[in-house]
Amino acid sequence: MNDRRYPETTADRFESPPIAFTDRTGREVEIRAYDGSAEAEEALVSMYTAFDPSDRAQGIPPGGESRVRTWLEAILADDCLNVIAWCDDEVAGHATLVPDGDAYELAIFVHQTYQEAGIGTRLIRGLLGHGQAEGVEKVWLTVERWNRAAVSLYEKIGFETSNAESFELEMALRLNESSDEE
Amino acid sequence: MKVLCGIGGSDDSLRALERTVDRAAVAGDELTVAVVENPDSDVAVEEVAKRAEEAIDEAGIDAEVRRVEGDPGSRLVDIAEREGFDEIVLGGGRTSPMGKITIGPIAEFVLLNSMTSVTLVR
After folding, report:
1. Whole-angstrom Cα distance, residue A116 to residue A23?
2. Which of A28, A74, A80, A137 is surrounded by the most beta carbons within 10 Å?
């Protein structure tokens, strides 16, 4: 897994959160970095326990509250970077960077009620802005090949396909200049 | 049931071994453990075979451990079909730090090509 290829050029600069905007249906949304509070964690648990299983990807988010809690505990750890899209005190979406050796694995979820309103694009850009500010160099993700909407969003942001040989497409992005290369 | 459990030493394959051996002890399955060469596994083939023998001894069952050389996926499918196995059991895939499940090339080949039923152990 360490022979993953990353784009040679570094991605554009992304704005870091907080980022406030009005979504395509007129809802006020704000993207903020996860503050480590119990309230934010509970709001995430609520979003994921109400998450439509048909939008699951490779087993995540898991089903059922106890599995959701165990999973969140792992990805809300101090060495991970998390960003939440808030609509009032409800979580509309969540994006995360989880360390994996010298890189970070990315995942993003937008609750069904809030999909197709432009929130996902803002959310992933907010996460990458947060990652850039925190000095993250390399990011990778996997996505189902049939999920054209997601693949084209990732491409638009600057992700390049790094492995097309398995069930899922693997894509990678260089977020900051690496200190050890070039 | 005549069961062929294919393992190459990855964590998920060792979990599959454990579960298959446990099941065989209860259900009286006729079990063969095929030790394949998985290039993604850090564990040597000899070590994998040893672990399989140990698991079988511990469960107190009678099962064959067979070293299988060559392309793992196609060899497993071939053995299962030629020798009339009812089921192929494999590890259920790796889990990324994020918790995403990824199916490796061996399981992918077996799933797509096998005429024998396949179980992936989670």
Report:
1. 9
2. A137
Residue A16's alpha-carbon distances to A32, A126, A165, B109, B118, in angstroms, are: 9, 5, 34, 43, 47
Read out DSSP for A16-59? PSPEEEE-TTS-EEEEEE----HHHHHHHHHHHHTS-GGG-BTT
Q: What is the pLDDT of residues A94-145, one digit of tens each?
A: 999 999 999 999 999 999 999 999 999 999 999 999 999 999 999 999 998 8
pLDDT digits (tens, 9 = 90+) for A28-80: 999 999 999 999 999 999 999 999 999 998 999 999 999 999 999 999 999 99
ipTM over 0.85: no
Residues 2-61 of A with CB under 8 A from B: 57-60
A153 touches A124 (CB < 8 A): yes
For residue B94 the two structure tokens come to: 């790796």
Alpha helices, H only, B1-120: 11-27, 45-59, 72-82, 105-113
State the pTM of this model. 0.87
Closest CA to A96 of A52, A57, A144, A54: A57
The closest CB to that of B97, out of A105, A167, A168, belongs to: A105
Shortest alpha-carbon distance between residue A50 and chain B (Å)? 19
